[in-house]
Fold this protein.
Amino acid sequence: MFLKVPPGDLQLHPETLNRTILALAIPAIVENLLTTIVLFANTIFIGWLRDDAALAAVGLSNKFLWIANGLFRAVAIATTAMVAHFLGKKDLETAKRTAAQSLSVGVLAAVVATAIGIPLSDDLLMLMGAESEVVHQGSLYMKIILATSVLSFPMLVAGGVMRGAGDTRTPMIISLATNVWNVVAGYGLIFGPGPLPELRLVGAALATSTARALGGCLALGVLFTGRTVLQLEPRSLLNWNRHLAWRIVRLALPNAGEQAVGRLGSILFMRILAALGTVALAAHQVAEQVESLSFMAGSGFTVVTTTLVGQSLGASREDMAELSIRRTLMFACGVMGTMAICFALFGQQMVVIFGASPKVLNLAGRALQIGALEQVPLAVHMVLAGGLRGAGDTRTPMYITMFGVLFFRVAVVYLFTITLGWGLAGVWLGTSVDWIGRAALMVVLFRRGRWKSVHV
C-alpha cells in the first residue's frame, strides 16, 4: 500500500530521494487525517446528545488539553531532530540514549502536568467564564483524560523517536489502532447500545482516555521489543543523564514557545471573529474544517524535512539536506497548490456536506475560496520550518511565529475585519496575508544558510 524504505536506512541519494520522500510523507499524512477524522467524529457524537453544556464542556476542556499536547509535541520535535542527527552519524548508541532520555523527560513532564491539571481543572474552566454546569462536566472530562496522561503524553515523544529513525509507518499504525478504539468505544459508552451503560460525556472521556493509554502502551511496546530500528531497554528510562536531558529541553524550549505563541494568537483571533456574530463564527468553523485537509498534507511533509535534514546533516551531507528540502517543497507545493485550485473553483460545493443554513454555507464557501490564496505560502512555511528544526534551529520558526502572530494574524485581521468592516472575508484575507508574510520571512532566513552550522 505504501512505498517502503527500511527505517533507519534512508536512501540519502539524489536518484532515490523522491521515493524516500513519498515513503515518509504518505504514512505521516494518513496519520494526520486519521486524527482529524476522529476529532470530527467525537464532535458529532457529543452533538447528538443534544446537551449544549456537554458540547461546550468538551470544547473548552480540549483547549487546555491542546495546550498540554503542545508541550509534548515540542519535546517530540526536538527528539526527532536529535535522533535523526545521531543516526545520520551512524552513532546508534547515542541515538538510543537520546531516545530513552527523551522518554524519561516526557514521563516526568506528564507526571507534573497531571499533578497540576487534575486539581486545577475547575479553576481553569472558571477562568474561561464558563457556566457552573459546563465547569462541572468539563472538569470531570479533563480529570478522566488526564488520569492516563503518564502513558498518553509520552506516546507523542515515542512517535518523535520513530520518525527521527525514518519510521513514519509505525506511528501511523498506532494512530489507526487508537483512533478506531476511540470511535468504537466512544459510540458504545456514550449511547449505551444493547447491554452497555449510557454514560454520555463520561463515556466520551473514558473512550478517549483508554485510547490514549492504548497508544502509549503500543508505542512503548514497539520501542522495547525492537520492532523499529531503535530497541530500548525499559531500565534505560531510569538512567537519568542531566546533561543530555538539558540538551533535549534546550532544543524543545523554542518549540514550546512557538506552540504557546500560536495558541495565544488563536485565542486573540477567535475574540475578533466572535465579534462578527454567530453566523460568521459558524461559517468560519465549517470552512476551517475543510481547509484542515490541506494542513494535514503540509504537516506530513514537515515530518519529512525534519527527518531527512537531521540525518543528512548528521552524515555531514549539507548538499543532501538542502536538496531534500527543495524536493519536499516541490511535492508539498504541488499537493497544496492542487488543493488551492479545488478551493477556488469548488469552495461553495465543498462545504455543502455540513448541511448548515444557506447563509452559513454561502459565507463558508466564499471564505474557503479566499483561503486558496494561502495554500502554497503555507506549504513553503511548513516545509522550511521542518527543515530548520531538523537542523536543530528551533529558534527561527519561533521568532517567525511570534512576528506573524503580532503583526499579521492579529493586527492585519483586526484591520481588515473590524476597522475596514470586511467581515468574514477580512478574516480570511488577513490570515492569507499572515501566511504569505511568514513564508517570505522563512525563505529569506532559510537562504542565509545559518541552519547548516547549528550544533544539535
Remarks:
- Residues 73 and 156 are 6 Å apart (CA to CA).
- Residues 52-88 form the longest helix (37 residues).
- DSSP finds 14 helices and no strands in the chain.
